[in-house]
Amino acid sequence: MLHGFLGDATNWLPLMALMEPHVRCIGLDLLGFGDSSKPPIRYDIAQEVAFVHQVLAALKIESCYIVGHSFGGWVGAAYALAYPEAVKGLLLAAPAGIRDDSFCGRYDHLRPLLWRTPAVDWALKLAKPIASIIGQRPAVDQIAWFRQELMAQPAACSFLLDRLRPEDAIDTVEKEIYRLQVPTLVITGDRDETIPLWHSQTYANEISNAQLAVIPNADHALPQKHAAELAALIVPFLTSKA
Asked: I need a labelling partner for 217 at 20 to 30 A (CA). Which of 53, 137, 168, 223 fits?
């Protein structure tokens, strides 16, 4: 189980509780996230794929199903492309990894949050009283949390810094996923404002015989908020492939 951006393996605990009576579940903190090591390197999808491969080799797991959410779905798809014989099937929940140049412009205003200077933290602290007066305190608190998370996770910082421009998005997988032949289930929520529906549709359309399931009234936080709906889709999928 591969978590999303700024997440960790604990995001899967609600789903694990529902699935462990049926299958063995392994949640992994991707390289640079959670309790995994955080070396001072340039983080990219290839690094994460190599890390997953090393972990599975250490666990002596020759093949398995990969469940990936958002960023973890991107890593999972890239892993299946690199090691198709090691993947029994893919379960991709709102997967990232489809090139979308609109993302770059959408987050340009957040660029200062990546600056490693206390001036940004001081500015956010000073902004909170004003934000309270004009009714924007929740937004500022959210930005401050995002800044705190980024500073604590060098992988997230590195990944964003290297992909602020459209021309830097060179490790997306939409041009390669047509090569995947493994059984695949793509799941998304109809209220996801982080990963657009067409990203999931691209995975489902390009991967041979892939299935697409849309969960009503679900946002992007599928593992955390919609574990029951995920389990209701994933367990029958795994059972049918056993």
From this structure: 137
